[in-house]
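Re: the 43-residue chain
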Amino acid sequence: MQKLGFTNNAEMLNGRLAMLGFVAALLTEALTGKGVLHFLGLV
């Protein structure tokens, strides 16, 4: 049975996904010249 909650593996995966999201946001801004909020229509 898998452990749930704040396990080392869950935190490692969460950190890696957060880094991927951050890099995706930076690339979106660099390639389009618009920020992520503008791209999503929130600004």
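The radius of gyration is 15 Å.
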